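Why does residue order matter? Because the sequence determines the fold. Keep that principle in mind as you read this record.
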Amino acid sequence: MKSDIVDIRKQLMGKIDGFGTIHRGVLLGVVVLCALSVITSQHKARKLFVELQKEQELAQQMDVEWGQLQLEQSTWATPARVEEIAVQKLQMQLPKNGQVQFVLAKPDSGTRPPQ
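Structure:
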């Protein structure tokens, strides 16, 4: 009787060990897949971070260029420069007091006169 119990116990343990080996193999496969997915996601995150830094640097360069262009535009559009070009290149001159005439426009029928 004792030997029968030992035999049954050995059979059960063999089945449990076999079952455990399958589970261990599946668990090992799952762990390896999880590790590979972590490595892949970290690699992608690093690549995206590097790309983000490049784009931020490009945006900063464009901001600097935009500021320079605004400064250049304000320099080219100064009243003194416009007057200088009008006098030198277009031979324009300020009108004298007698040359200025004021013309009053009649209000249109659809508009109200100024109050």
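The radius of gyration is 44 Å.
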